[in-house]
Specification:
Layout (H helix, E strand, L loop, with lengths): L8 E3 L1 H5 L4 E8 L4 E3 L2 E5 L3 E9 L3 E15 L6 E15 L10 E2 L4 E3 L1 H11 L45 H8 L5
Parallel strand pairs: 7-8
Antiparallel strand pairs: 1-9, 2-5, 3-4, 4-6, 5-6, 6-7
Length: 183
Amino acid sequence: MGYGVFTVKLNVSQQLKLPGIAGTAHIVEPIKSIDFGGRIVEFASPADITAEYVYDGKGFTVDGSFSALLSSVCARCDENFDEPFSFDFSERFVKEVSDADEEMYTYNGDTIDLSVMIQDNILLNLPMRSLCREECKGKCPRCGCNLNLTQCSCECSDVDSDESALKGPFAGLMKLLTDDKEV
């Protein structure tokens, strides 16, 4: 997985000279799509990132927030929509990472590159599924029409007694539910 989503760098030369003095940044940057295990994560707006960073003599603590709009597909109705996406972060950056500090990021010279950390946090905070709205009715399981837009004429119920409904990979399980035999 490549880390070429965007480049977000902080110049920390002042903080290296004055430990304990906080620096701040506000960055608005377009984001490229991310291929995450076959799922393409696309953004409908630039990233809005705020960060506060403090040097303590050994490394930097970077606290901040990220927000953008995801280009999502509803898990119920399969329609495209723009989904608000945001998270807060608090990460540690050190000059060199030892085996004991594996969960820290590194900085080089007088620059902290936030790109890898931001992408890691994007992937950690992605929603498992997206809904265009909480009350989305989804699609008819029989004819596939979007029930938010139209009411179909199918008679859908939880357990169909109709033999045509007993097709597909779960037909055997459905038959177990409708038989009165003890299993």
